[in-house]
Amino acid sequence: MNRSFHHMAIAICIALTVATSAVTAQERPQVRLINDVDDAAVRLHPVTPYLESSSVVLVDVDLAKVNIDAMLAWLKKSFGMDEVPENMTAAAAAANGFSQALKGAGVEHLYVGLSTRSLFDRGPIVVIPCKDTTVVKGLVSATLQNLPPDFGMKVHVGEELVLVGPESTVDRVVAAKGAIRPDLILPTKGKDRLDHTLVVSLPDEARGDLVALWPERLPEQFPLQFSPRALAKDINRFVVSWTLPPNPAINIQFECEDTQAAIRVSEIVDQAKTLVPQLNGLMEVKVENALVDLSADPKALADVLGSVLKPARDQARSVAKMNQMKQLGLAMHNYHAVKKQLPPRHYVDRDSKPLLSWRVALLPFLNQKALYDSLKLDEAFDSDANATVSQTQVPIFDSMVQSVRPPMTTFRAPVFPGSVWHGDGPPKRFRDVKDGTSNTIVFIDAPPADAVGWADPTPWEIDTEDPLSDIFGDRDTITAVIMDGSVRVFTREDLSGGKLEALLTIDGGEVIE
Predict the structure, then answer these.
(1) 381 contacts 390 by C-beta, under 8 angstroms
(2) Backbone angles phi, psi at 182, to 5 degrees
(3) Distance (Å, whole) CA 463 – CA 287
């Protein structure tokens, strides 16, 4: 097996072991809570009437400690975002409005419960204690309209609360008497508890059968060796609590049978940390009596989240950039269809002095006709008449590079001997591209150091001695628009050995493999 599979298997095994951690009802002593919860508090808890004997998870979200705007600002700062994406901003605004409306209706906490039976119902039960059930029902019902009908969601109004969940789950828990589950009910504030909590604890009647499924030993090829069955006997309950940004924190606790069990669990956690480099320096492991406590340093937590999210963020930016460049390619083709030629490298005055860039010529074909009409084409981009307009931010030219702020752009036309942009004659036509439109580069996402204003006509001249250095800069890949309108990503290796020169020229007669 490869290392990735080892680690994944270990993670699944540990997670399932925690979830099923216990012994049979006959073997297992009464659950000992780290923070005592008396019977009255458990019976009077708003969730108790809707818990099931098969309930395994309970989440408690303190709505007063949820600040959507602060979370968005923290994400932007921590992950180095220039601007928060519009879709994320819109989602945050909707969530913020929903949250504020719930608070206005007297909602302080949201509870989410999951039982083994509700797994088959395709959803958990959400319990929303509130003062104004009419408002909360309306808010929830409006939100559920965005879900497909086959989800079968139901809203039930009780006494000073609203239930939401799959219809079968809601009907079942409303008809039942509720289960007394002190192992799932936590006090509002306890030792090391943060604002929000998630508790995993299996009911006794399910433990015996489940524990019997766990092996005594793991296969020898696993890099981490422990007994899943012994671990299941050592752990009574698993609790995660967290605080949201702007001051994020997380705490994980394993409540064990005794001190020796806690020591054994902590040793497994320490071994697991060595297999996941991101966990080193993130989680501090402490053992106190029968409790294994893991706490994360806030800064280290932000760094780890950043490293996890960065690839996804970079991929999203890459896809967005390719879509923008595809629009440039389409605009070029539409321009040619109308003008019977490619856009000029730049507009010039009577003395052949460059005035405005090729990007200006494409504006009408990029849904920017009004912006195009506001420019004086016989004056320079930075003239008194054009300076303000040329500072306008045009989304299609935003190359989404942190160091390149609009109206600057890295979308450039490479000027190279024999290229479509070379020479001071009339603009080229498709029929001039003898090497074939699928074999010729027309636009490139240039290095940040070569960014210019989108209206600036300054040519991007490529060094004939070392074109790869000019094109790539310190990057390993580039994105380019091909003359046929397609967009391709190239590596240095792809374009070495004269291939770049062949792709830049329009009539070189080179064979490109």
Answers:
(1) yes
(2) -60, -20
(3) 63
CA separation for the pair 353, 342 (Å, rounded): 20
The 10s digit of each residue's pLDDT in 111-146 is 999 988 877 787 899 999 999 999 999 999 998 887
Q: CB of 365 within 8 A of CB of 334? A: yes
- pLDDT bracket for residue 91 (50, 70, 90): confident
The pair of three-digit structure tokens given for residue 383, joined into one six-digit string: 């003239």
Rounded-to-integer distance, Cα 118 and Cα 165, Å? 9
* Whole-angstrom distance, CA of residue 494 vs CA of residue 105: 61
Per-residue b or e along 278-301, where b marks 16 or more CB atoms closer than 10 Å to that residue's CB: ebeebbebebeebbbbbbbeeebb
Distance CA 147, CA 149 (A): 6
Confidence at residue 280, expressed as pLDDT on a 0 to 100 scale: 65
Q: What is the dihedral of CA 442, 445, 449, 452, to 10 degrees?
A: 70
**DSSP secondary structure of 118-171:** HHHTTS-EEEEE-S-HHHHHHHHHHHHTTS-GGG-EEEEEETTEEEEEEHHHHH
Task: Report d(CA 328, CA 360) in Å as an integer.
Answer: 12
Note the Cα 290 to chain centre separation in Å: 36
Each residue's pLDDT tens digit, 281-338: 677 888 988 999 888 766 666 666 666 666 766 777 788 889 999 999 999 999 999 9
Q: How confident is the model at residue 484 (pLDDT cuts 50, 70, 90)?
A: very high
Residues 6+ apart with CB under 8 A from 497: none
* Angle at alpha carbon of residue 125, lines to 119 and 131, rounded to 5°: 175
Q: Determine the Cα–Cα distance for residues 37 and 184; give it in Å rounded to an integer.
A: 10
Instruction: Tell the residue number behind the tokens 């706490």, with chain if given.
Output: 295
Q: What is the pTM of this model?
A: 0.59
Residue pLDDT, tens place only, 346-386: 999 988 899 999 999 999 999 999 999 999 999 999 999 99
Closest CA to 60 of 193, 157, 175: 193
By three-state DSSP, how is residue 230 classified? helix
Question: Cβ contacts of residue 161 below 8 Å, gap of 6+?
Answer: 46, 127, 128, 129, 130, 133
Secondary structure element (H or E) that encloses residue 358, with its range: helix 358-362
- C-alpha 157/C-alpha 137 separation (Å) is 7
What letter represents residue 333's amino acid? H
